[in-house]
Amino acid sequence: MTPWNVLVLFCAISAVSGWYSHPRARDGYSLPDLISTDEKFEAYQQRQDAAVRNPIEAPYRIPNYIVPFHYGLWLRTGIHEGNLTFDGRADLYFRVTNPVRTIYVHSRGLNLINTELYMLPGDDLDGDRVLLERPRYTINQNREFIIFSSQRILVPTESYILHVEYSAELRTDDDGIYVSTYMNENRVRRHLIATQFQAISARTAFPCFDEPALKATFNLQIVHAEEYSAVSNTPVMEIEDYEEDGFQDYVTTKFERTPRMSPYLLAFLVSDFKYIAEGNQRVFTRPNAINQTEYALASGLRTLQAMDEYLGIPYTTHMSKLDQAAIPDFDAGAMENWGLCKYRESLLLFDPAVTTYRTRTWIDTIISHEYIHQWFGNKITNEWWSYLWLNEGFATLYEYYGAHLAAPEMEYFELFTLDVTQWALDADSREGTRPMSFSNGATFYDIWDLFDSIAYSKAGAVLNMFRGVLGDEVWRLMSSVYLSDNELEAVNPNDLIAAMEEASKDMDTLPEGVSMREFVESWTEQTGYPVLEVRRNYRTDEIILSQDRFFNNKVVNNDPTEWIVPYNVVNQSAADFEFLNWDWLTERAVRLSTNVPDDRWIMVNKLQTGFYRVNYDVQNWYLIIDALIANWASVHRYNRAQLLDDAFHLARANRLDMEVFLDLMVYLQNEVEYPAWTAASPIISYFYNRLRGTPHYEHFQHFIYSLLEHVYGTLSIDSVSEDETNLHKFLKQTVSTWACRIENEDCLNRTHTLLSETVDRRGLVHPDISAVTYCFGLRGSTEREFVYVYDVLKTSDNQALRTLLIDSLGCSDDRTELRAYLYTAVGGEIQVNYTPAERRRVLNAVIAGSREGVDVMIDFLVDLYDYVLLYLGQGMLNSLVGSIASKTNNEEELERLEHLLGSLGSSIPPAVANSARATAARNMAWTSSREGLIVTSFLESFSNNEQRKK
Questions:
Q1: Contacts of 455 (CB under 8 A, 6+ apart)
Q2: Which PANTHER family match (predicted)?
Q3: What is the pLDDT of residue 558?
Q4: What separation in angstroms does the CA of 410 have from each of 369, 404, 460?
Q5: What DSSP state is assigned to residue 574?
Q6: Distance CA 385, CA 449 (A)
Q7: Which 3 state secondary structure label does DSSP give 79?
Q8: Calpha distance 931→659 (Å, rounded)
Q9: Is the pLDDT of residue 23 over 60?
């Protein structure tokens, strides 16, 4: 699933019954087929018996003695009429590993009507079943269990079927089995059923053994109106008329049997959606967006082919088709259901007239993320959610690397270090972080908390480090071993370690005395990561290399954590950044000799492949800085981005003098490539947020203008040429955003002129420069431009464009326009077809757009906070107060914050008000802090020096 962290269901199948054909799915299955082999069943028993469960999890987990192997599912819905209830029947096929009387089944919100327990003689699923009893049961809502009690002892030598009839309501929170809606071309609201079962919400649709390791096959039938169609993981086997009083013009769609898979991967869609198709792939969406599906289909085709070739294990080994679906309401973002990937509309639909290069990048990379899950996640699956990183780490790595394999000209893997590694380094430096392998319980929210930057970004970065150590060819071999040895099974880190050992057995990879397990677990079982301290002794030509856990807010030299660290060294005399030759730091500190001249820099961690930060002695830092100022291209672009990111965070943690970092930033005056500017952007934002509204802001503006002046002059910010690369467009947006934000006159004039000309011709700005043009073109614009952009928003049904325009309208600095805009979010006189998420985004956009927006929001909340509570809830009001506090930097702004808090009174919790005051106090104290004084002193000195040069 895609978070930064997160699909299912479709249409148009009734006319194409049997569109796909998979011979084996039509054949009968025997029990050995369904539970792999008897040997594997015994191995499964041993593995389950050996599993040590977290005591906090145990009350919510299926007992080890239950072994499911098949489900027969039947659902009936009247969703075409907006009916929010459904009926279901489920046959749960299982065995037990020791004599028992009690069977635990997961259930959430299901109303049981009838239950029966059968024995299944022989090994034929379609054989005659023998009714044993109608078992008694109790329901434990807190643990989400139905606990069945049998009068007879169930024994390991037999197979059983638990038959359950039930009814339930569709959910409305985008989780489990839920209802979604859209407006068709006639402005009529249409309903559909979608599913999102990860992590433990399959139990909302049918009673089940809802754990990832409890794999089984599924036979699904859905009864629905003939005007709708149903789509699921596997192809349709047949569609037949449904005959029962009260259900005229209904049909039953029957699907082919699935491979063995986890319950959370089951997916279906019941809707009036349309689709386009090529080969064994289809893309589904609402009928009025079908013309936006061609790009996703083409991307899916090339991505699947690239992954087939790279892994050497064809997708069609177990699945004959792969569908994608754009769901109007899909909180998860995207989901990898086997054979039926689901996406939020803005992450799949592509309209060349309005879709930006960023959205196209998201579409390609997220398709790659979900497609690689068909192997890492579906074919093999994390044994329990504590090992979620085994699914999501691989998906995060191949989100970029797989997209690169499919479309190398787009240079998607160039984004990995910036989007993944540096993001993860920031998140994992906090005191409250966790190890990659980790569990704190088995409830819905305990598990949901694991879908975080550690499971995704850190895991992806660490796996990329492992890949760098092994080399890509050995990594490919490892992947093949890992997938083949665990085919259709659940895995834990031991299986990955075994595959890494097997693939690298003929290599001299690790240091002497270090096992693959020790290396891997030093990164997966421990919290945080190290900073490597590189200290040169220029008199003795020695280096002291040490490791220490890095925290973002303090220096701790007595933390006992140690890692087995792969590192490499490059120096100014032989600046080869491409060859990744590895050495190892296996203890706290080592002394190394070097023949690098005293006037030449050394650098550690080529291409930022290792997951750690690096600090140097001050002299080496200035050797690097001087070299960059003399020739910025003398250091690899990844490492220039690394130097900025590492130095900033080291300075903030008091491991490096902040002035050294600021001197490093000066080299950006000549930098013209995307990676370094992307690394610099959040740093500039950090200083902007603390200096805006203070007497020092003018010096800050001057400093950033000086850094931007050269690169800005190389860019055409109001036009797009055909030969611009994807990365050039990223660079252009990053640089022009900051140029306009610091009120560069040329930038503001160009964006305003382009927007005005666009309004004159009643057109749209080119999508690849639209974000900056719409946002900053509205600064100082007339009402005409604002109304025009607003009208485009109202009439657009492209979710990605709507999001961009919502954010852009918040950039206006006209208070009357902004206040009217806020009214639309809470159902004022101007009615807009916002989704609930869009209403929240409008309010956040106004606060994020400008200080004028913050002031307008304060006045708006003083007058209408009760409307915000009514339409958007307490959480939204609390969040808005926190956002306003974060943008409070001076006494006047503090007075306005206090006025707001006083007006809200008891409408917000005291803790929220206290937190807001504390945030504002920290902001206002920053300029007089040690860090603030160093920064403001540097900025003043820099400005004075620049003035003297002129």
A1: 388, 389, 392, 393, 436
A2: AMINOPEPTIDASE, PROTEASE M1 ZINC METALLOPROTEASE
A3: 80
A4: 16, 7, 20
A5: B
A6: 10
A7: helix
A8: 9
A9: no
Nearest Cα to Cα of residue 35 among 128, 97, 77, 81: 97
Site of tokens 């080299």? 667
> 375, 313 in Cβ contact below 8 A?
yes
Instruction: Give rounded-to-5 percent helix, strand, coil for the chain.
Output: 45, 20, 35
Q: What is the mean pLDDT of residues 370-377?
A: 98
Q: Are 168 and 88 in contact (CB under 8 A)?
A: yes
If one compares 834 and 40, the residue with the highest pLDDT of the two is: 834
Distance, CA of 896 to CA of 373 (rounded, Å)? 50
CA distance 42 to 329: 43
**Residue 352 three-state SS:** coil
Instruction: Retrieve residue 197's tokens.
Output: 């079962």
Q: If we measure between CA atoms, which residue out of 662, 619, 556, 642 comes closest to residue 932?
A: 662
> Which DSSP helix (H) or strand (E) runs through 897?
helix 891-904
The greatest distance separating any two alpha carbons of the chain, rounded to the nearest whole angstrom, comes to 96
Contact 322, 339 (CB under 8 A): yes
**Percent of the chain whose predicted confidence (pLDDT) is above 70:** 94
Tokens of 502: 């097997």
Counted residue by residue, the chain has a size of 950
Q: Are 209 and 147 within 8 A, CB to CB?
A: no
CB atoms within 10 A of CB 4: 13
Give me the pLDDT at residue 830, please. Answer: 55
**For the segment 673-698, what is each residue's pLDDT rounded down to a tens digit?**
999 999 999 999 999 999 999 999 99
CA distance 935 to 729: 31
User: What does the pLDDT average to over 237-256?
Assistant: 95
What letter does residue 822 receive in the DSSP assignment?
H
Q: What are the backbone angles phi and psi of residue 71, rounded to the nearest 5°?
A: -130, 135
- Residues sharing a CB contact under 8 Å with residue 235, sequence separation 6 or more, in sequence order: 18, 19, 20, 21, 22, 25, 255, 256, 320, 321
DSSP 707-761: HHHHHHHT--TT---TT--HHHHHHHHHHHHHHHHTT-HHHHHHHHHHHHHHHHT
C-alpha to C-alpha distance for 738 and 492, rounded to whole angstroms: 45
- Asked whether the beta carbons of 144 and 60 are under 8 A apart, the reply is yes
HEC per residue, 655-711: CCCHHHHHHHHHHHHCCCCHHHHHHHHHHHHHHHHHHCCCCCHHHHHHHHHHHHHHH
Per-residue model confidence as pLDDT tens digits over 298-323: 999 999 999 999 999 999 999 999 99
Closest listed residue to residue 130, CA positions, set 118, 138, 140: 118
Q: Which of 454, 462, 495, 460 is nearest to 478 (CA)?
A: 495
Q: Encoding tokens for residue 292?
A: 């936006």
Q: Is the pTM of this model over 0.90?
A: yes
**CA–CA distance, 651 with 683 (Å, rounded to integer):** 12
Instruction: For 49-82, write each residue's pLDDT tens digit.
Output: 555 668 889 999 999 999 999 999 999 999 999 9
For the record, the structure tokens of 198 come out as 């990860």
DSSP helix/strand/coil, 547: strand
| Secondary structure (3-state) at 134 | coil
Q: Which residue is associated with the tokens 């093999």?
A: 380
CA distance 72 to 949: 80
Task: With H, G, I as helix, E, B as strand and everything else as coil, classify residue 488.
Answer: coil
Residues tagged active-site:
370
DSSP 652: H
3-state secondary structure of 330: coil
What's the number of CA atoms in the CB half-sphere (13 Å) around residue 424? 33
Measure CA 677 to chain center: 23
How many whole angstroms separate alpha carbon 922 and alpha carbon 937? 19
What is the rounded CA–CA span in Å between residue 738 and residue 718?
Answer: 15
How sure is the predictor about 557, in pLDDT bands with cuts at 50, 70 and 90? confident
pLDDT of residue 835: 85
Encoded tokens for 840: 């929240």
Which amino acid is located at 307 in the chain? M
